[in-house]
Design brief:
By secondary structure, the chain is α+β, with helices and mostly antiparallel strands. The chain is built from 2 helices and 8 strands. It has a 4-stranded antiparallel beta sheet, covered by helices on one side.
Amino acid sequence: MTRYPTRRRALATVALASLTSLTLLTGCSDDDTPSSVASKAASLASQGASLASQGADVFASATAEVGDKFDDIKGGVDVKDDVKLGTPTTSGGRAEVEVTAANTADSQKSFLVQVNFTDGDGTFVDAVAVTVSDVAAGGSGKATARSNRDLSGDVKAKVGRAVRY
């Protein structure tokens, strides 16, 4: 699963914010000397790089933990299209979303589902794995995915991957 477009969008947002801030600083500063402007630009760029690094760390940490759970499943079948998510809500600061898995197999199965949480701009903010256990053949089962971190604002959820085993 490649997340480069999300990372590029986050880095582009940081770069745009830095350039916008630089433009504002050069128009409003009492000290408009080139060295002062360059110093402020360097400071903003450093802050932007730090934020981008933190975003990459969140992504790496969340996906590594979820990936470990998927690595433990042997013989699982990709069933991402058989899993639907409800509308995310927040409870106690954390985002929650109902996960519904449809079992199209001929016997009882369980599902492991990766849910990716994003902010209103589509920027990745968290990932969790949830198990929907013991779903009867031809039936559906439900579980609730809850973010690992406090999330606020316009939180969206998307199925990252799902396996039936």
